[in-house]
Amino acid sequence: MQVNFFDYVLSYQGGKKSMKFLNEMQELIPFDAIEKKLIEKNIYKPNRGKCGRPSLPSKTLIGALFLQSWYGLSDPMTEELIHDRISFRKFLDIKDEDTIPDETTICKFRNALMRENLLEMIFAEVRTQMMEKNLILNEGTLVDATLIHASEPKRKKDEYGNVISNEAHDTDATYTSKRGVKHHGYKMHIATDRAGLVTEVKTTTAKVHDSQMIDALTQNETKAIFADSGYMSKERKRLLKSKGIFNGVIERRVRGQKELSAKQSKNNQRFSKIRSIVEMPFAFMKRLMHYTQTKYLGLHKNTQYHYLLAAAYNLRRMPNLIIQRGG
Questions:
Q1: What percent of the chain has pLDDT over 90?
Q2: What is the pLDDT of residues 187-212, one digit of tens each?
Q3: Dist CA 182 CA 147 (whole Å)
Q4: 317: nearest Cα among 200, 199, 197
Q5: pLDDT interval class at 161 (50, 70, 90)
Q6: 325 secondary structure, DSSP code
């Protein structure tokens, strides 16, 4: 069979760094397990028979969502870069230009997964794979949260200067104040192991206090919990002690206490070094994956997207961890 120009070009590697990274991801993403779940939920149909256009491979559609997450891409930019970058097409196993997904297809596929909570399923499949490879450390859970900005309400005035509308585009988003600065949007709450791999994700609106989510994030932890002083409470301290779980929550002064004891200060220094690892995923997502503000409207969609982000981050960490641990 004669090789066309498109196939000929694809026989060459793209940029060395991106090609190496995407080749690693191709091996690590549990495509088969995800496809099986999508078929069970009737989200993906691999064969449509003789009538109609054949479905795009699930690997292409799933892979496109991960590309969006790793590189912070919109739907139109994802379609454009799949056309433009050899490394993207090789990662998606695209052999013919007719099988490149357009922005509408990508959007519809992602929305279908969000409706059925299947981005959460993808996160769970990646986590299961990490556990099977013994990559998750069973040495305690670290907890933290970060604010994700959403566009604020814009005041609309009539011709006389009277305010006639002050509604946010995203009606689920709420306000909170941090260090005297007002924020509008959501909070992404995560739990990690002591290597910084994300083991659990929860999403709330901005007004929900961080401490309200610690129990949901650590419900399976039996050894130790580490968190900053915002999670400190007498009730939690007693509860952890009763369960035999090590309390690594940083302490702050309580009413009537002028300063921390020498033991508290020493413990805080030790716990702080461990707890700081939980900030790694947020730094990675915001700086390298360009996730600094919400991409979708509503609590449900943003919740599902945070699962996909966490899965993408974990996958990015896996190759180095496999090497370090002799996998």
A1: 73
A2: 999 999 999 999 999 999 999 999 99
A3: 11
A4: 197
A5: low
A6: T
- Rg of the Cα trace of the chain? 23
Place of tokens 């730094």: 283
DSSP of 110-160: HHHHHHTTHHHHHHHHHHHHHHHTT-S--S-EEEEEEEEE-PPP--EE-TT
Distances from the Cα of 310 to the Cαs of 64, 137, 201, 326, in angstroms? 16, 17, 8, 24
Q: Name residue 111's amino acid.
A: N
Alpha carbon 124 to its chain's center: 12
Place of tokens 């994956």: 289
Using the predicted structure, report yes or no on whether residue 49 has a pLDDT greater than 50. Answer: no
- The domain segmentation of the chain, as residue ranges, is 5-116, 138-298
Give the tens place of pLDDT for each residue, 209-255: 999 999 999 999 999 999 999 999 999 999 999 999 999 999 988 78
Considering only CA atoms, which of 56, 57, 74 is closest in space to residue 65?
A: 74
For 249, counting Cβ atoms within 10 Å of its Cβ (0-12 exposed, 13-18 middle, 19+ buried), the class is buried
Looking at 1.10.287, 3.30.420, 3.30.870, 3.30.160, the CATH number of the domain 138-298 comes to 3.30.420
* CB 10 within 8 Å of CB 89: yes
Mean pLDDT of 291-312: 96
CA distance 276 to 258: 26
**DSSP-derived 3-state class of residue 43:** coil
Q: From CA 88, how far away is CA 140, in angstroms rounded?
A: 37
Task: Kindly report, residue by residue over 65-91, the tens digit of the pLDDT.
Answer: 999 999 999 999 999 999 989 899 999
Asked whether the beta carbons of 194 and 315 are under 8 A apart, the reply is no
